[in-house]
Prior knowledge:
Layout: E1 4-8, E2 10-15, H1 23-31, E3 35-40, E4 48-50, E5 60-61, H2 62-71, E6 79-81, E7 84-85, H3 92-101, E8 106-109, H4 124-129, H5 132-139, E9 142-145, H6 154-157, H7 164-179, E10 185-187, H8 193-201, E11 206-210, H9 212-216, H10 219-223, H11 239-250, E12 257-259, E13 270-271, E14 274-275, H12 285-295, H13 303-321, E15 329-333, E16 337-338, E17 342-343, E18 349-350, H14 353-356, E19 361-362, E20 365-367
Parallel strand pairs: 2-3, 3-6, 4-5, 7-8, 8-9, 9-10, 10-11, 11-12
Antiparallel strand pairs: 1-15, 13-14, 15-20, 16-19, 17-18
Helix pairs in contact: 3-5, 7-8
Amino acid sequence: MTVQFLLxxxxxxxxxxxQGSNMVHYVQxxxxxxxxxxxxxxxxxxxxxxxxxxxxxxYWSLEEYRQMLLxxxxxxxxxxxxxxxxxxxxxxxxxxQGAQSGLLQACKYYPPHGTTNSDHGRPLANFMENGVFQxxxxxxxxxxxxxxxxxxxxxxxxxxxxxxxRSFYEEDMVKLAVRFPKLKIVAEHMTTKxxxxxxxxxxxxxxxxxxxxxxxxxxxNLVQGLRYHLYCLPLVKFNADLEALRQAVTDPKNTKFFAxxxxxxxxxxxxxxxxxxxxxxxxxxxxxxxxxxxxDGCDLGAPENQEIFKRFLCTNGPNFYGFKPSEKTFMLxxxxxxxxxxxxxxxxxxxxxxxxxxxxxxxxxxTDIQS
Length: 371
Ligand SMILES: [Zn+2]
């Protein structure tokens, strides 16, 4: 008999929905994979880095970007969180203003120049010293972390024994957690065993999100044939890291690790002089997560394993952010499906990760999405 089970609709607690006319398609791709809500990243152009439209700064406000998302179809979501992009202009007063207006639930730390549209980021130490993290701790605002040390030269940036994420979690994050013991922190799109160890060791105020690609692939998959559709930041790492990530999500006691796809659409992935960072998993993420669980030997035909999967995909995230898991459901079935490119109005397409890896076949499919 075909394995199939009912799940609550899930929350994607890290996704890029960008700006402009393509947004409607990106939102629709989330809805088609039974996503009940999102945390939509603020590295838009311009960045979403102030609270109200009237505030005198050259950025989009949470107010404006939320409205753009709602207009693009995000009004179908049960939850829509837009974190504030932390820049040189972020002040403790803005945190207070955001918290009191009800618009601010989270802030996003980007290492300067660390990834797509992260040029406005400032070093972590800035916010430790200027009162911003202290204000966030006071008001219960979640800190979403892109955890990589910035400004490293090649050999320190990525090597078998050392990399930008490992240094960041072993050095900077330890200091941060000691200095602000009540600050709610999400280690986003974790890729290393060191990041997993950091989250496990931390209190209940520290959690982590993991993408499908980091649960499925290692750097070997990226470099063999230079599969640039798997190029995302932080980079996929080594086997020991993959195992630590899989162990974290398939642990029957997992309360700290949850889904955040980091799905990042690019209509042009390869450019003249490089490659845009980000894997697009709109439409296919729960299916890929299910595949990763099974690759780790977690048979999703067994009810106890379905429960573990549900916690990772559907309930741990809402519990951490403090909202209710969805009461609506969808069916995940082990029947084959095929991933397809996403078409934009102007004829451009976005390639989902499985298509980019030339294996568009999906082992799992989604049906019966309750609207
Ligand atoms: Zn991201």
